[in-house]
Each structure stands twice: as C-alpha cells, then as structure tokens.
TrEMBL record:
It comes from the Bacteria. NCBIfam families: lao. Belongs to the SIMIBI class G3E GTPase family. ArgK/MeaB subfamily. It is an enzyme of class 2 (transferase). Pfam families: MeaB. This is LAO/AO transport system ATPase. The keyword Cytoplasm does not apply. InterPro entries: GTPase/Isobutyryl-CoA_mutase, GTPase_ArgK, P-loop_NTPase. Its EC number is 2.7.-.-. Keywords: Chaperone, GTP-binding, Hydrolase, Nucleotide-binding, Transferase. GO terms for molecular function: GTP binding; GTPase activity; transferase activity.
Length: 321
C-alpha cells in the first residue's frame, strides 16, 4: 500500500477507497502506511455532526456537502453506522441520503460500522480521517452513530462539533445537558419548520446563559442555527457559522493548540493499546498467569496484586537486555 501513496496524493479515488478499506480492516502494513501519510495530513478541516437518532443528521450532511461544493471545496464524508452485537453486520445506509453526490469527483463518501466501539465513532475513524486528509480533502465531515449522551468521542476528532436537535423529540433540556452540552461548538435545531422549534432555541440559549462553554473557551459562545434539511433552508447560514468558528480558532491560536492536544492524546492511546496487547499476548502464552487467575477466583489473592505483578514482570522482561 505504501507504494500507492503518490497515486493517493494525485487524487486517485480507487486508491483512496482501497486504502480506507486496508486501514479499516487493520491490514498488516497499516502502521507503515499511516507513518508515511503523516507528513501530508493536518490540512483538512474536520466537522463533526452528532445528535440523537432521527434528528436528520444524514440529510443535513447531504445539504452541507451541497453548500460546501458551491465554494469548490473537496469534501470527504465518514458516516458511522451502528454494528449489530449479534451478527456483527451494519446497514451502512447513510449514503442513500447522499446519492446526489455519487457522480461528483470532488466528494468521497464512506460508511463505516462501529464494530463494537462506543462513543459514536468507529475504532478506525481517526485513521480514515488521516487518509482522506492526505488525499487532498478541504473539509471532512464525520457523522456519528446517533446514540445520545454517550457519543462524546467526536470532540477528539473534529475541529468543529455540531450537535443536532429537533423539536418534538422529548425533553430538549435532557438532550443537551452534561457532556453533549459541553462538546457543542454550534447547535443545530433541524426540522425547524415543525412546531416547538423556537422553544428549543430558547432553551438552548438559557442553558448557554448558565454556562457550559466547550473546554472553557469563554471567547466563543456556541451559536444556534435553525435548519430544514428537507429543502436546505438555513444550511447556508449554518455553513457560515462553521466558517466563523474556524476563523475564531485560527485567530485565537486555539486550532493549533487543540490539534496538538489531540495528537498528544493519540500517542498516549497508542501506547496504552500496545501495552494492553502486550499483556494480552503474555496472558495467552503463559500458564503462570492462568494459575494466578485461578488463585483470584479462589479468593487466595486479590486482582490488584495480580495485575501489578503481571505489569511489573512484563515490563522488567522488556527492559532487560
């Protein structure tokens, strides 16, 4: 795959599709590929779209793509679908709502299953973002699963996070409280042609007045946009708000700061995952650990002591020449 990087940089869509599949399936040379792609990343602006199921995220994404294409931007889309815990399959149907862009060579849409990952994203989402970034996308839109208050992971991948709400979907205060409230850079009241839309806007504004700005950034008050994705009403104003947030981040220096923070967090995640895999392999090979686990079951030793012993011995082996 590494040898196909020049074709990717040249805009070859087939190579792009193959690389995404390769990364998503955890191909043997994935790390080498991502290592070589790293210098070509960091240029695309990532927009995260989250919210409850049925809020119209896919239809809204379709309208945002249309608006961005008016500016001749190259757009990549990652639509994350839930994976069945029983069959392991996913419908991957979000692209049906974006069919108007199939023939547009400057739009690339990819659906991905969560494959058991919590937080609204697939495990490979961040890696696929890098591939799309290197391919020359100006904007990358990541649409999350839509699982309510648990999908906070999007804030670790997106530069601007849009939280989509709808009138008539129950208690909107319940929907926007806690984490969801804090991750939003822009609130979107979709289906605003329905009764109750203005009430939702008012409730959001009241909550904002009480505090809850993202990451303590008191210089940016998340605006509220009203849209109707079925006909595109208000989407142009929404895109302008996204661009205004980008300008704010760039002017204040927070864009670079947040991206640096995310890269540092990514390094920590990789280290943690490798340590976990190292321990898992050791546990699978050694009968000694199985004996210790049996002692835990028999209440002869506690789990914390066993965990400490495994870590110390494994790290000692790795550090000893």
């Amino acid at each position: 795959m590494v040898e196909q990087i020049p074709a990717l940089l040249g805009g070859d869509r087939r190579v792009l599709a193959r690389m995404i599949t390769y990364v998503e399936n955890d191909g043997e040379g994935k790390e080498a590929l991502l290592r070589e792609l790293h210098p070509y990343t960091g240029k695309a602006y990532v927009i995260g779209i989250t919210g409850s199921p049925g809020a119209g995220k896919s239809s809204l994404t379709d309208r945002i793509i249309t608006e961005l294409r008016k500016g001749d931007y190259k757009v990549g889309v990652i639509a994350v679908d839930p994976t069945s815990p029983f069959t392991g399959g996913a419908i991957l149907g979000d692209r049906i709502r974006m069919s108007d862009h199939y023939l547009d060579q400057s739009v690339f849409i990819r659906s991905m299953g969560t494959r058991g990952s919590l937080g609204g994203l697939s495990r490979a989402t961040k890696e696929v973002i890098k591939v799309l970034d290197a391919s020359g996308c100006d904007f990358i839109i990541v649409e999350t699963v839509g699982v309510g208050q648990s999908e906070l992971e999007i804030m670790t991948a997106a530069d601007s996070t849009l939280v989509v709400l709808t009138p008539g979907a129950g208690d909107s205060i319940q929907a926007i409280k806690a984490g969801i409230m804090e991750i939003a850079d822009i609130f979107v009241v979709n289906k605003s042609d329905l009764a109750g839309a203005d009430r939702v806007v008012t409730e959001i504004e009241v909550m904002l007045d009480l505090g809850g700005y993202k990451k303590g950034d008191q210089s940016w008050r998340p605006p509220v946009a009203k849209t109707v994705s079925i006909n595109g009403k208000g989407v142009d104003e929404l895109v302008q708000k996204v661009k205004a947030h980008r300008q704010h981040l760039e002017k204040s220096g927070r864009l670079d700061q947040e991206r640096q923070r995310r890269l540092k967090a990514e390094v920590s995640e990789i280290i943690e995952e490798r340590i976990k895999e190292m321990i898992r392999q050791q546990l699978g090979r050694s009968g000694q650990w199985n004996d210790l686990l049996e002692e835990v079951v028999a209440r002869k030793i506690d789990p914390y002591t066993v965990a400490s012993q495994i870590i110390k011995e494994e790290l000692w082996k790795r550090s000893t020449p």
